[in-house]
Amino acid sequence: MLQKEAIWQELERFNVVSGGEAPLSDTLDDLSSLLNLVSKRTQTDKPYALGSVLVRQTAFIFVSQLYILSKYRLTWTGNIKEIRVLDQEISGKWMPQWLFPEGSWVSAANDADVISALKKIICEDCRNFIKDVAQATKSSPSVLWENIWGYALWMYVQLMQSDENASFARHDITLLLETEIWQGFESRSPFVKCLNGQTPEESMAAYARVTCCLYYLIPGHDSCSYCPRLSKDKCLQD
User: Fold this and answer.
1) Total structural domains in the chain?
2) H/E element, 16
């Protein structure tokens, strides 16, 4: 099995770190404190903009686990609520790291294990976090889900372009787009609408959002190059 240290080193590309003593910083469970931190760093008090920024940054927590699952068929056993934010800015932009607590990486030995891991990472942990953020900031869940999807799509397409990891990545993204894995959580996969009828590869090749991430509401930011150019009111609707 891949050494644990090598896994964490590989996950640094997702702004995920582990090891050492945890600083006295907010955990993922301290939502109010996290939103206050986002407000301080972005200089905005618009709650739905804060919610979008927070989910775009925390997306790495979930996508990093999906990455290791697809690439190595390993899943993390730690408690997501104990993940801490390491506050930092890079070139004037808030770019936090996420400090994972101790936890083992265990094998997802068969398809049942993979499905169980996907449900835990996305249908449970990620969905619960999105629900909490949406409620606290009066945000559209569709916007928040697409914030997760943008990074997940990028990660999966990269793996699908690699001969070594293509089959696992394609298998996993297909599962996340199917209704079956979401039974008991959502009526359908919230990611389907993000593809807008395209394949993952087609969507990534000419990436464009179907909802607005609301970054234009943050001082000093304009609309993203892949903004759907929706009206402000429509951006906030499911």
Assistant:
1) 1
2) strand 16-18
